Each structure stands twice: as C-alpha cells, then as structure tokens.
Amino acid sequence: MKKYRFKSLAVFCASSDGNDPGIYEEAYNVGAFLAGEQIEVVFGGSRLGLMGQVAKGALEQGGEVTGVIPDFLKTKEVVHTDLTNLITTKDMHGRKLKMHDLSDGFIALPGGFGTLEELFEILTWGQLGLHRKPVGILNSTGYYDDLLQLMEKMVNAGLLRKENMNLVLVAGNIADLLQKMQTFEPMPVPKWMNKNQT
C-alpha cells in the first residue's frame, strides 16, 4: 500500500555541482528516498549537477524518472539518456508547463536563478488558484534561510499575504517535508478568480 497520496513529484534544483558536499549528497538521497516510496521523479532532464544526482539516486533504487528538457539544451553534454522517460519541449516555458502537468507536487532543492524562477512561478500559480498542489522547500543545510527571511520581510511590509507565504512548505529532511506535503490543504480559489462566483 502506498504511503503517500502523490504518484509523482517534480524536483527543482541546480544543474551545477556546487561546492558543498552535503548538498550534493542530499540530492542523491532525495532521489533514492522518493524511489523507495514509489514516487516518480520529474526533473529538468540534465545529467549534470544536482539534477543528475537526483536522477541517479532514484534510478539506482529502481525508481521511475522522467526528464523534461527544452530542445536547445538537448545536447549530449547535458541531456540524461538513461531515464525512464525523456520529454523534449520547445522552450523553457513549455518545460515548466509539462513538469507541472506530470507532477502531483513540487520540491525545491538548492539551486541558482533557474531553480528560484521555477519555484516562484509555481508558487505564483498556486497563489492565483491555477493549481492546488503542494510546494515544498527542503532546507536541511540552511541554504534557504535567507530567502525565507526575505519572505517574512515581504509579509511584514504588507507586500505578501501571510496565507500566501503559508503555501511554502519547509522542512529540514525529506521525510518531514513529504509528510507536510501529504497533509497540505490548498487555499480556497480567490473570489475574483472563481468564474462561478456571483
């Protein structure tokens, strides 16, 4: 019997190795953990960096891994060719949309501009009621401490509603994060977005 209600999760993370061995190792462990829980990994399709480690961890545990990569990045130096599924999109926006469609939720591991862009776009979609899926940040190394502090500053400045910040689920280990995602209750769709509202 499956422990979690989701069948697949998208993982956003860097295509670089970084210089923290703990972060690098954790990316592998996340992939392995998800595979062990029979959760398919959906990711950006690269064999490089943390992306490659997530895929490697899942594949070595017999898990299913789907990569989604835009055509202009599909070179032999970048693309992971040993996946369960590999989907090519026209562009970056198409990649994010396909990852959204294939996934029951989203997890952010450490990354750079691309990872943050993916995280904030999917959070914005949730804020607008365009999806009702859980979004988590795995913060075991404290990598996202400053970002979370900035979000609190946004709330205190009246530029981000507290209930919207609560869309961000945060935990220090993958098991705790999945439990939070399992029990996540989405916000009601905003009245101005509900076409059936009178």
From TrEMBL:
<dbReference type="InterPro" id="IPR005269">
    <property type="entry name" value="LOG"/>
</dbReference>
<dbReference type="GO" id="GO:0005829">
    <property type="term" value="C:cytosol"/>
</dbReference>
<dbReference type="InterPro" id="IPR031100">
    <property type="entry name" value="LOG_fam"/>
</dbReference>
<protein>
    <recommendedName>
        <fullName>Cytokinin riboside 5'-monophosphate phosphoribohydrolase</fullName>
        <ecNumber>3.2.2.n1</ecNumber>
    </recommendedName>
</protein>
<dbReference type="GO" id="GO:0008714">
    <property type="term" value="F:AMP nucleosidase activity"/>
</dbReference>
<comment type="similarity">
    <text>Belongs to the LOG family.</text>
</comment>
<dbReference type="Pfam" id="PF03641">
    <property type="entry name" value="Lysine_decarbox"/>
</dbReference>
<keyword id="KW-0203">Cytokinin biosynthesis</keyword>
<dbReference type="GO" id="GO:0009691">
    <property type="term" value="P:cytokinin biosynthetic process"/>
</dbReference>
<keyword id="KW-0378">Hydrolase</keyword>
